[in-house]
Design a protein that fits this description.
about 210 residues, 12 helices, about 75% helix, about 0% strand
Length: about 210
């Protein structure tokens, strides 16, 4: 089991270390069994704790899974935001962020499984994952690269598209072609014509140009 949260709590109190153990257990159990199979008992057994200990820290299974998913999403979104902070174009940020998000999660299958499953079943997680997209789109609107702000349903569609791309890469391996096609599809959902979407992707992420 990957000890991401535990490694961050080594110098904290015993209570915080136990909480971190439960968070790591939730990630590992969802990755192995899916959200449907990640019961409180399954999570606590995976880390050698009792159900009583669980209820000292969380009221429900979804509360635990949401906290783990928010923390993982926050780590990824912050990393990507730092990577693209020097990119001036909003459209280019959408492309670079989408490409990086899919690529990073394809290398972290446990995190990928958690975020994909949690985003499908827990609306607050899905909404949080869309915050980097909304910020980049807002910039593109200010710059006149886009003309219409996407609604919540469209943002959810883009999230589902990204989740599908991540699942494909987990099954078949990393693919620049999948990432390029996904970036183009995202821009088309945001209102760009196909040719403009393709050109924008290759301009923002030229490393994807050979992925034909």
């Amino acid at each position: 089991m990957r000890q991401h949260f535990q490694s961050q709590s080594l110098q904290l109190s015993k209570r915080e270390r136990t909480r971190s153990l439960l968070l790591d257990g939730a990630v590992a159990t969802v990755a192995e069994r899916g959200l449907g199979g990640a019961s409180i008992k399954a999570i606590t057994e995976s880390v050698g704790l009792s159900n009583g200990t669980f209820y000292n820290h969380f009221e429900t299974r979804d509360e635990l899974v949401s906290e783990a998913a928010f923390a993982v999403a926050g780590t990824l979104v912050d990393e990507i935001a730092e990577d693209v902070q020097s990119v001036e174009s909003g459209i280019a940020r959408v492309v670079r962020s989408t490409n990086a998000f899919i690529a990073k999660l394809s290398e972290q299958p446990d995190w990928a499984a958690l975020l994909v499953d949690a985003s499908r079943h827990l609306g607050e997680v899905r909404n949080d994952l869309g915050r980097h997209l909304r910020a980049d789109v807002a910039l593109a609107l200010q710059q006149g690269e886009l003309t219409e702000r996407p609604g919540r349903f469209l943002v959810d569609q883009i999230g589902a598209l990204n989740a599908l791309a991540i699942e494909v890469q987990l099954r078949k391996g990393k693919s620049r072609a999948v990432r390029r096609q996904t970036c183009e599809a995202v821009l088309r959902l945001l209102g760009l014509p196909p040719d403009e979407a393709r050109q924008a992707v290759l301009k923002a992420a030229p490393e994807l140009e050979a992925a034909r």
